[in-house]
Amino acid sequence: MKLKKLFTILFSASLLASCNNFMDCNESDYYSLEEIRGSYDRVKQFVTNVYGYLPSNFCNIGGAMHDAATDDAVHVYETSEIQRFVNGTWSANNTADDKYSTYYNGIHDANFYLENMTGLDFKTWEYGDKYDEWMANYSYWEYEIRFLRAYFYFELVRRYQNVPLITKTLTMNEANAVQPATAGDVLDFIISECSAIAPNLPVDYGNVPGGEKGHATRTAALALKARAALYAASPLYDTSNGNNKDKWVAAAKAAYEIIGNNTGLGVGLDNSFSNLFGAQNHLSKEVILVRATGTSSSFESANFPMGVQGGKTTTCPTENLAGAFEMNDGTPFDWNNATMRANPYDKRDPRFYLTIVHNGMNWPSATPVEIYEGGANGLPLTNATTTGYYLRKYVDNSISFEAGSSSAGTNHNWVLFRYAEVLLNYAEAMANAHDDINYTDADCAMSALDAINMVRGRSGINMKALSTMSATDFLKRVKNERRVELAFEGHRFWDLRRWKELDESKNIYAVKINRSGTQVTYTKTLLATRTIEDKLYFYPIANTELFKNTNLKQNPGWN
Fold first, then answer.
1. For residues 289 and 416, is the Cβ–Cβ distance under 8 A?
2. Is the pTM of this model over 0.90?
3. What is the mean pLDDT of residues 31-53?
């Protein structure tokens, strides 16, 4: 590669509010490699570009969220790309959510940085007022870049299984001839990288001179390690179908690296569940890493109920998800219970009301939504929800599209990692590792039972603590807890796959709501039955990629 070759630096959307911050510019310039290496600002901008490959799941698949391809939600528009996951049109020629080239572009840029932009001293600027501050921040960037590369590999391996593991820049011919590595080897690489880089990253950039929030921290690296270890132990990735106790032990230990030092790492559960999904969620002690998408009102427009000014509906929760939320005393919701059926939204888990909009809820204003048939927000209104529910989580009701409203867009920050997930990862791993939900040892001094009860018992939620039960029954409760706690955060789609439980998403249920006078009745109904095949556990590799590199192997069932 000639040093005089010009490179394009693309500056991505901001993680913070102002263009003075690390992740906030959107421009293009052309510089030689020498010009980039000689400028702190240009190197910084290159790093920004690599951060720009991080995912955001705000309606990014044909206007839908990933959850609309699970049993937790449906998408009301039949023309959306998300429908390929469920209507049989998904194929190597008609891909959905195809991120193969996107993440390899991110990996290429990361490798390029590590080969060309480490060990710089910016001597030309050493007498500037901010030189020491610059160098303090610069010292972390190579470890942030390695974190990002590991994260991109995680996104690739859970989509495509066996993918090439590339840790240096390649020519086009070399890139089109690489051999895929096994999913296990890629996950091991991620785990190893996170172990290596975590000690070299700061706990909090607030303690770094000129430091800015939004960068990968030590906790972020450990959280990625814990998630990758959990996947490595899970049935879809473990060659013993999830029966390798050593892998579950490793996953538990990885999560406990955070849990056992959460105070020192500055993380813990937020006392307010709603804080986790608002414009300032990146400031919460529970949130470990976010990807910001900037200031807008597009997510609100996409998810305000039909019939609300400016609302057009996209992702609608199902009764499958609604029914997973317990009563507030910890008993399961049961449609066969006449009292519960008569008023199904009374006395539910507080997280239910912060996740789902139900009939009669005052949302997004003080006006109750009318989701019953013939109501202001219900069928047969065009594009009204077909499930009986609308989405609340992540939707900011301070936005208004009413004429004369002064409200504008608001910040949206997609949560990539938060502490509650770490606790649930730990609970699952410990129960699988030891078949005893009360087990502790010197390496993992918290029981699986205590971990899940911390999540359930956070201030403001205060769900009844679970008590001793068999490991088998406990794991069912963990899976349900992940479903309700992490709903619409991009986990359900992948959890069903790593557990090899896609059959759970076969039947999609809705609630049919009828009103006669003042009397409202609710009936659980079957909305759709989806065809589940084993090939759906992994994405098809696009034929365009297979044509470029004949060494790639198509995933089973997609030929």
1. yes
2. yes
3. 93
